[in-house]
Amino acid sequence: MKIHRHHIQTRGAALLPIFPGLFAFLVPILMLAMAFRPAPALALSGEAGFFKAEACYLALKADEKQLRYRHNWFPCIRMFEEAHKAEPNGRYAPANLYMTGHLYAQLHAISGMNSDRKEALDRFQRVRRRYSDSVYAAKAAEGIEALGGTPAAEKPAAEKPAAAGNAEQPEIKRVRVEKAVDDTARREPPHKARDPEFKNAKRRRGAPAESPPAAPRPKAPPAAPAAAPPINPDELVTVTGLRVWSNPSYTRVVVDADEETPYAYRFLGEDPSSGKPQRLYIDFSRSRLSGDIRRTIPINDNLLIDARAGQYRPDLVRVVVD
């Protein structure tokens, strides 16, 4: 026991001078670390988040090269979503939710993917249901129509119940009128002028015969439709190019124009009788083709055959993808 006690005392005497110096070295380091520790990031409000996301979207729109790549759109979409989640009942909540649908709709116009269209329609419908009193509800309805969707029908107003004293009155009136008509028909004899024997007796007595009914007047011919106003070429959008990118899983067709213009598209099924394959055509309103545009671009990948552009009407350009 003495040996062990002496051994313990010897170790303690050797370690005691070490610990005070170690503590004196570590305590200042720990205090500095706590002083310079970064504070937790504060969540942005709905208003601040909206302007931050809008700046992201405007920067993306200004860079045409970045617009072509689908993954560049999602950071801006997530910013609007986070701003909406931060204040779902705030003043900027309708705008934040609407912008998520607007960005998905813009992305669908570039990618042509049905998933982007569904995301846009879902967010527009949520704006109409949750923020029906906001100006963004009308904007969302326009976005739904532009995507070919149907806005949710509004519930019809409930009919006001009739007063207790007037509930039977319409039926009573109807019965009285029918009885009056029946009594009149029963009291009055048939008119003499409608009796053929009375007409013959008048002719035999020399009475003048009744004049025949007047012939109906001929209807006036319908007015000719008004002539369409002349088209001013300076007011038309010029389609300047047609480009194609072919990838293993998808093919992208880009139509270049000098301004934005309304458009509509439609799918046509295969026509075996004429040998025409399935095709998609897009009509661009208020537009014309540039003189140096390449009108047909062969593709011949596993998805498409070619893409071609033509002046379908003087003010409409049609692009067909076979």
Assembly level: single chain
The string of secondary-structure elements, in order, is HHHHHHHHHHEEEEEEEE
- Helix proportion range: 40-55%
**Total strand segments:** 8
Structural class: alpha+beta
How far apart the termini lie comes to 99 Å
The overall pLDDT, averaged over residues, is 75
How would a textbook summarize the main sheet?
5 strands, antiparallel
* Strand adjacency order, main sheet: 3-4-8-7-6
Q: In angstroms, what is the radius of gyration?
A: 41 Å
Uncertain residue segments: 1-16, 153-188
Name the overall outline: extended
Number of helices: 10
Portion of residues in beta strands equals: 15-25%
Describe this structure in words.
There is one protein chain. Helices cover 44% and strands 16% of the residues. With 322 residues, it is α+β, with helices and mostly antiparallel strands. The chain has helices at residues 2-15, 18-35, 46-62, 64-67, 74-86, 93-111, 114-130, 135-146, 169-187, 196-204, and strands spanning 237-246, 251-257, 263-268, 279-285, 287-289, 296-298, 306-313, 316-321. A 5-stranded antiparallel beta sheet has the order 3-4-8-7-6, with no helix packed on it. Strands 2-1-5 form a 3-stranded mixed beta sheet, with no helix packed on it. A hairpin with a 2-residue loop joins strand 7 (306-313) and strand 8 (316-321). The longest helix has 19 residues, at 93-111.
